[in-house]
């Protein structure tokens, strides 16, 4: 289905001016959500955990829920054009705001006449905590340190947490450590003619215990044999023990054998696998949760997620956008994953809709997987500032299709199920509706926890005129930063132009995959002449060393894949890799990369690379940057 054009041109001059300031090394001040326009007194509403939705929304009589404050603004018309003469502040007092359904903000909730509606943590960054989880209670001892609780079958969930730390779905073989995905088993080729199958998984005799109960089990697999590019998480439909064959419920993205090489995988979610503290098993059919706590069951809090998205900011369509809204200083914690996952459709045109470039079906998320803890679509001028986001089932921030001028800044994102920040424009050639985003001063760490394949700290797809700057991105099975379209897209239909990446520190990328770069592009400029209009400067990339089990080709610092042209690189430093520091076609320019003999380290502005000194949260991982 074709997408409607944007109702107005993106506000590029302002955003490009911002980019200019960042290029000079200047640090922009965070807009103070407490300050309104000169001579203007903001409307102040208050929400508190101990409030009452029948209250007045004042400081002394606060509302209890965010939705009640939102509805009060709607009902009173406080943000209507012609009436809104100042900002509106929705002040969330310190404490927890558990949600059982997504908080939706649409074009009715927009700021108007140049003013903003600001949902903020009133008592300081991180003090107001919006959480998408609830405690599991009623535990009864099962055996061997394992406890069981009845959780029902009406709301299944696909990740779990103990005292703010993600639990591991019981798996075989057991993981080596909490921050590793390995070790794995490897699929085998049963018969030569079965090499291309995507639904039959074979093992060698003796690798599987024939007494396992796999009635609720899944396979997590790097499909494609040696192609360690994407991971699939797929339920097991059937198991033929005599043949050492499992049939998966859905096809994987790639074949399970490639060039007679097998795919790495592990099995998960069987009670027979539950033998480690911090592991859980969910019996979906009986509605029973089994868990082996890290501590005493009476002293820990086990949390099950209640929502996949905490905030959904969505205009009705590209001509009716939600705009002028800020989320500031909030802690956003706990969201859910999905029952099965595959990245994109398998073949061109599989979406069933006519598109100018049906190849993009293989690039875009399936509709069922288009969500983040904060999901943004059909928007303009949305700001996410000083957020502390953690323990998400999937992406932390996902901006999809028609969005202009999204800002994500000064935020800490950690323990993320998928990408940290993903910005995806429309199908190529169907309207340039995603432009001018500013992603700056963010610390993103331990992402891709549930979807290690293709995970990126920041992923831009088919979007242009963006600035990604002053950020620290750390610990990923795959990418640090990526910019992608498709190699088949004609220049006039390719919207990934005019992007700037600068003052970035990328560490611990490529921990479990190959044929990749910590900075990665795919299909961005495919036809000569290659206009250089994407720019990368002042970037430090640490060692890119994969797990020993990874069979694919090597890891790289910078990898300009399939049409990755039209870039300038200036002042780039790369640590150890298993292949090249820099792999590219002869279609990009390089000035002062440390893989060249004349590299001058004095040009590196180390003191400005990564997050700035005024980053609002303590840095994780013991970092002192």
From TrEMBL:
<dbReference type="Pfam" id="PF21231">
    <property type="entry name" value="GH141_M"/>
</dbReference>
<feature type="signal peptide">
    <location>
        <begin position="1"/>
        <end position="29"/>
    </location>
</feature>
<feature type="domain" description="Right handed beta helix">
    <location>
        <begin position="373"/>
        <end position="515"/>
    </location>
</feature>
<keyword id="KW-0732">Signal</keyword>
<dbReference type="InterPro" id="IPR011050">
    <property type="entry name" value="Pectin_lyase_fold/virulence"/>
</dbReference>
<dbReference type="Pfam" id="PF13229">
    <property type="entry name" value="Beta_helix"/>
</dbReference>
<dbReference type="InterPro" id="IPR006626">
    <property type="entry name" value="PbH1"/>
</dbReference>
<dbReference type="InterPro" id="IPR039448">
    <property type="entry name" value="Beta_helix"/>
</dbReference>
<dbReference type="InterPro" id="IPR048482">
    <property type="entry name" value="GH141_ins"/>
</dbReference>
<dbReference type="InterPro" id="IPR012334">
    <property type="entry name" value="Pectin_lyas_fold"/>
</dbReference>
<protein>
    <submittedName>
        <fullName>Right-handed parallel beta-helix repeat-containing protein</fullName>
    </submittedName>
</protein>
<feature type="domain" description="GH141-like insertion">
    <location>
        <begin position="241"/>
        <end position="294"/>
    </location>
</feature>
